[in-house]
Amino acid sequence: MEFSLHDLQQLDKSFRAQLVNSLSGYKSANLLGSQNKDGKTNLAIISSVFHLGADPALVGFIMRPHSVPRHSLENILKTGCYTLNQVNSAIWQAAHQTSARYESDESEFDMVGLTPHYLNGFEAPFVAQSHIKYAVELQSTQTLVNQTELVIGEIKHIYLPQNALMPDGFIDLATADTVAVSGLDCYSTANPLGRLSYAKPHQEVKKLTRSGEVIQN
Amino acid sequence: MEFSLHDLQQLDKSFRAQLVNSLSGYKSANLLGSQNKDGKTNLAIISSVFHLGADPALVGFIMRPHSVPRHSLENILKTGCYTLNQVNSAIWQAAHQTSARYESDESEFDMVGLTPHYLNGFEAPFVAQSHIKYAVELQSTQTLVNQTELVIGEIKHIYLPQNALMPDGFIDLATADTVAVSGLDCYSTANPLGRLSYAKPHQEVKKLTRSGEVIQN
Predict the structure, then answer these.
(1) Which residue of B has its CA nearest to A19?
(2) Verdict on whether the full-model pTM lies above 0.90
């Protein structure tokens, strides 16, 4: 079945939001940790974190104009630092609950039952219950076409469980129990189909083990 | 375990690329279809498509400076249009193979065995084997901090299987067999944990069926 531009424009607002949010495919599920100058913490689920570069290690995310994480953006602009914490299947419901519109004097950590955690003197809180997390220093923000905000930062320190790190640097997100988001509100764990070798023209790609070794047929 | 900024800077380049690419979490897997003014087609797998807005329906993606999709970017800048096609578990290996550095006179469609498909007169090829796909008109491009290119477009026409569309507009990506990417080369299908109701302060979120109905406890 299909939706033309005309159909899209005629749709009920909530139906259209569900539909269009599903189109990009699976999205990363991360908790954005920040705090203000007085140490008041804030936590917001975001589904738009994306890789920008490995050296320097840069990561971007999008903040919607009137979305809940507006307190997060204020904190980030004032302190210049934040944390990103992958959501796993033990905390997916608490993570979703952070999207409620709490007052600025209510910390989402307290409201949803997650634990703020400070590591190596970094001035933004991590989520104790998250397995893969990293400290990020703000590099730039810019407003895009529809008043969404693109936030880019540099990764300064990474924490992860040893058993999820493979010998070639790949992190096995399935071992770390990381979840993905689809649409506005659906959460999933993953069933790995496999890893594949670096693709070269006129050569068939090979399946790899999760450790990155070629599987012999 | 942990990696400090100093550790990151000392890492082998390929290890660092694997590690940092894994940090964002699960990524969307899409095939970017385009063609030049002579109708020569191009197809490239990208893992950075993200939702930007529902009305107008806007979608963004990132192109790395020296990555393979450079032919795609040239096509998009010249024709102003492209398609995005979700990768599913029947075509994940062919999709990965499009990342090989083919010559500009070799179409990835032919090289990897996927079928170009034209719909409703749109001047960019869809992937026949993809279940969820849409026509996109270029709106803007801009160069970001590390010479990556941010490409933003407006969704003009959507195609999807009827059985994947839920009554509230949510597309069940598991039914459509869509896959996610993690790191540089790992592909997974999804195990839905469930959908959750819109979060409100001081109220517990409720689990929803895939159709969006509240599950009564």
Answers:
(1) B169
(2) yes
